[in-house]
Design goal:
alpha+beta
């Protein structure tokens, strides 16, 4: 691999950098890693464990994920292993059994949000935000597939959160960066690298943090991460934070099997010659106490459904008494009662997804939404039709299926007991309701 001009010299003094080993590592294949969804248990693929993430595996080779029905069902997420260390730090520095307000600021495509959603308590709320409008669609799709009802998707600039003083217990800033940590995985990133771009990214990272810091409560946890090796985007940002609103957290003890994770100024550096993964930097900092008080937020208003509508949709949920039902543009949604007030406090944000879409009612019948099929809250008594891998791919292509079944009406299409979506069985045929925009096109 040929590195961009000036790159090696630029990072040569970074702590833990070994030019010879680093260069050799970039001649090796990129590791492939996946992380399983604890709410959708399946038989795991052959592989070796990612030491800092109990739900994750390294695979011996990269399969064609697009032709695995379980990938489309949200049973696992394909994620770079180094970035999963975010979850390890989250567990180290929070009580994940307590109710928390969590914000993932730059969340698309959803790796860290699905990671945290699998770790937080059922009483917690995660706001998964993406600044760039064109990237919100894939973020929402991955959050829907993961199926956790306690996740809200928003499309806001970081400054839109600045008025939410002290609302969040944890904020994750996986900041836009120059991308040098992904040179092996994404060779095109080399074309974008320059010292000028590094400095530009550093200024943008500082702006994002300045805008978002007021929303973190005193004593709250900030996880700041990049996929860059540059000091200007990593330790320098940490130094600025420590000079102002934050204090360092103690260095955690890293087990030997994790490999050579380098600790540097309250941050952790990942080099591909020292661990099995790509380049990554993450720092865990605590916001100093004092100064901020939570302010009154713009309250989001919910239009509740009537008793007849509730009786219809309740049959589709496991423990429907735990949810609040409301309607928006003829679609019925539900949110866990335990986080209703927290979601209501987000009324000043541009919310793309708040609650699980259950569907719309026509002629006293629920036309179920795909979100309901993907959700972990769906009733286990709903009729299900299991498909083998070949038929499941046909379904996911949104093609016609010839199925002999005694079932009638709406049913969940499943593969290995994991829901893929909806179908309606009528005499002589099966109507495929898999979302057109999500279908397999290959």
């Amino acid at each position: 691999m040929q590195f961009p001009a000036g790159f090696i010299q630029h990072i040569n003094n970074c702590k833990g950098f070994d030019e010879v080993a680093f260069t050799q590592a970039h001649q090796l294949p990129t590791p492939v890693s996946i992380r399983y969804n604890p709410q959708k248990p399946v038989e795991k693929m052959a592989g070796s464990p990612v030491p800092w993430c109990a739900e994750a595996l390294y695979l011996p080779e990269r399969p064609l994920f697009v032709f695995d029905p379980l990938f489309h069902a949200g049973a696992y997420y394909v994620q770079e292993a180094s970035s999963m260390f975010t979850g390890y730090l989250f567990r180290q520095f929070t009580d994940d059994k307590k109710p928390l307000h969590i914000l993932d600021v730059c969340a698309a495509p959803g790796g860290k949000s699905t990671l945290i959603a699998g770790l937080m308590s059922p009483q917690s709320l995660l706001v998964s935000n993406e600044v760039i409008k064109s990237r919100v669609t894939i973020l929402k799709e991955n959050i829907v597939k993961w199926g956790n009802p306690n996740v809200v998707v928003s499309n806001n600039d970081p400054r839109d959160f600045s008025g939410m003083n002290g609302f969040f217990d944890v904020i994750i800033v996986d900041a836009p960066c120059s991308g040098s940590g992904l040179f092996r995985k994404e060779p095109e990133a080399k074309k974008e690298w320059s010292i000028e771009n590094v400095n530009h990214c550093s200024l943008r990272q500082q702006r994002i943090l300045e805008d978002i810091i007021p929303a973190l409560k005193p004593g709250g946890l900030l996880l700041y991460a990049t996929c860059s090796y540059a000091y200007e985007e990593d330790e320098k940002i940490v130094e600025i934070l420590l000079q102002n609103d934050f204090e360092p957290l103690p260095k955690i003890s890293v087990p030997a099997e994790f490999g050579g994770i380098v600790f540097s100024k309250s941050g952790y550096r990942f080099y591909p010659d020292k661990i099995t993964g790509e380049g990554f930097f993450i720092a865990a900092l605590r916001k100093k106490n004092g100064g901020d008080e939570q302010t009154n937020q713009i309250k989001k208003q919910f239009i509740p459904i009537n008793a007849d509508e509730k009786n219809i949709v309740a049959n589709y949920l496991h423990q429907p008494e735990n949810y609040f039902f409301f309607k928006y543009k003829e679609v019925i949604y539900c949110i866990p009662e335990i986080v209703k007030s927290s979601i209501s406090a987000l009324g000043g944000l541009h919310l793309i997804k708040s609650g699980t879409a259950l569907g719309s009612i026509k002629n006293n019948e629920l036309i179920p939404d795909h979100e309901l099929a993907m959700s972990s809250i769906i009733s286990k008594t709903i009729p299900r039709l299991g498909l083998n891998a070949t038929d499941a791919i046909t379904y996911l292509r949104k093609n016609t299926l010839q199925i002999n079944s005694n079932l009638k009406g709406w049913c969940l299409i499943t593969h290995k007991n994991i829901p893929l979506g909806w179908a309606k069985i009528i005499p002589g045929r099966l109507n495929n309701y898999f979302p057109t925009e999500w279908r397999i096109r290959k």
